[in-house]
Amino acid sequence: MSFSVPDSLFWTIVLFLVGLGLICIAGDKFVDAAVAIAKRLKIPEIVVGATIVSLGTTLPEILVSTTAAVGSAQSPEISVGNALGSIICNTALIAGIGQLIRPAKEVKAKSVGWRMIFFLAAAVVLFLTVLFTPESDFINKNGDTEHAVGTVIRAVGIALILGFALYAFLSIKLKDSDGVAELDEAEKIMPMWAAILMLAVSAAALFVGAKLLVDNGQELALRMGVPERVVAVTFIALGTSLPELVTTVTSSIKGQGDVGLGNIIGANLFNMLIVIGIPSAITGNIVFTAKSQFIDLPLAVLVMVGLIIPMLIRKKGSRVQGALLLLGYIGYCVYSFVAAGA
Known about the structure:
With 342 residues, the protein is mostly helical. It has a single domain (45-178, 214-341), classed as A middle domain of Talin 1. 78% of the residues lie in helices and 5% in strands.
C-alpha cells in the first residue's frame, strides 16, 4: 500500500510547518527584545505590550485584510471577518490560554481602563456606521451573491486611522511607573541597538511565518471542504493571531504577563482601528454582512468585557475566567461551522 503524498500537498504541509516554526522561535525573541527595551527606557511593560508588541503581532492581519480588499474586489468582507475573528480569537482563545497558564496579577486600572473605553468607542462607531449606511448586494470570491447590511465608507476608515494615532499618542503620554522593573546584569549586556534589531528581525519573521501559515492553512482547509467564509473568520483569524498566541504564552511562562495582556488589548484595538481602517480608507467600500454586524461585532465586544471588567473589579485574573473564555471560543467555532453547513 502506498502512502505517497502529492507534491503540491506535500509542499503545502512543509510550508505550513515552516511557518509554525518561524512563529514559535520569533515570538520568544520578540518578547525578550520588547521587555529589554521597556526596562532600558523605563516604560511599563503593559505599554510596550499594547504598542510595539501589538503592532508587530498585528502585521499579518493588516496584510491579509488590505490584500483582500485591494487585490480582489470580490473579497472585501474578508477584511471585516479577519479583524473581528482575530479579536474574538485574541480574547477568548489566546487570553484564555494565558490566564490558564498564569493568571494576571495586580492589574492596573489606570493602564487598562482607558484602553477598554477606547475599544468600546471604536466598536460603537463601527456599529452605527454600518447601521446608517445603505444596504447592498455584492458578489463574493466564489461568485455567489451576498447581502451587505452596511458599509464602512472612506471617511470612517480615515477616522479609524486617526483614532489609532490618538491611541498611540495617549499610550505614550499617559504611561506611568507601574510595572517598571530594574535592569539586571544580564540585560545590561545587550545594547539598545541590539534589542531594537532583534525586535525588528523577530517582527519580520513573525510576519513571514504567519503568512505561510495563513496561505497554506487555508489551502489545507479548502482541500477538506471547509467553506471559504468559515475559513476567513476561523482559520485566517487564527492563523494571523498566532503571533499574539506565541507572545502571550511566552510572556506568561516567563512571568511577564503584563506584556501578554497589553499585547492582547493593543492588538484588539489595532484590529478595530487599523485592520478595518486601512482597507476602508483605500477602497471606501468595506462591507458588513448581517452575521458580522449582529454576531461577530457584538461577540468581539462581549469577550473583551468578559476579559477586562472582572480584572478591573478583582485587580487580577483567574483560571476560571480563562476556562470560560476558552469555552466561549469553542462554542463560536462550532456555531460558525454548523451555521455554514445549514
